[in-house]
């Protein structure tokens, strides 16, 4: 394949707070923690997430979000909340689509989806 996803980028105002939160949330390692950084890649075994200092306030928060899959939704929601996420809504309309919407420390929304490992993308 000639193209692949390299990273998802989140614009943010406080790069250090967001680096701490997302590094701990997804077990990622930042490319740098230099106070002068305007952009950081958080590296992981299977995923990269990038943070970019926004020069203007981010206003369209719902254009894109992350879906995080887990076998332990309740445990992960508790862990992420302890790291600084804020619960927004638990959606259970469809028994096969159970997810909790959380907001990170800068109010970017993301979902913690109850998706057993064997169900995700035909893997297992």
From TrEMBL:
<dbReference type="InterPro" id="IPR037523">
    <property type="entry name" value="VOC_core"/>
</dbReference>
<dbReference type="InterPro" id="IPR029068">
    <property type="entry name" value="Glyas_Bleomycin-R_OHBP_Dase"/>
</dbReference>
<dbReference type="Pfam" id="PF18029">
    <property type="entry name" value="Glyoxalase_6"/>
</dbReference>
<feature type="domain" description="VOC">
    <location>
        <begin position="4"/>
        <end position="115"/>
    </location>
</feature>
<dbReference type="InterPro" id="IPR041581">
    <property type="entry name" value="Glyoxalase_6"/>
</dbReference>
<protein>
    <submittedName>
        <fullName>VOC family protein</fullName>
    </submittedName>
</protein>
């Amino acid at each position: 394949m000639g193209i692949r996803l390299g990273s998802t980028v989140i614009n943010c105002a406080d790069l250090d707070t967001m680096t701490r939160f997302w590094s701990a949330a997804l077990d990622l390692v930042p490319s740098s923690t230099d106070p002068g950084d305007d952009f950081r890649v958080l590296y992981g075994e299977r995923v990269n997430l990038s943070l970019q200092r926004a020069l203007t306030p981010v206003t369209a928060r719902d254009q894109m979000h992350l879906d995080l899959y887990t076998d332990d939704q309740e445990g992960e929601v508790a862990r992420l909340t302890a790291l600084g996420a804020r619960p927004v809504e638990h959606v259970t309309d469809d028994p096969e689509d159970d997810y909790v919407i959380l907001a990170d420390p800068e109010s970017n929304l993301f979902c913690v989806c109850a998706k057993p490992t064997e169900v995700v993308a035909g893997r297992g």
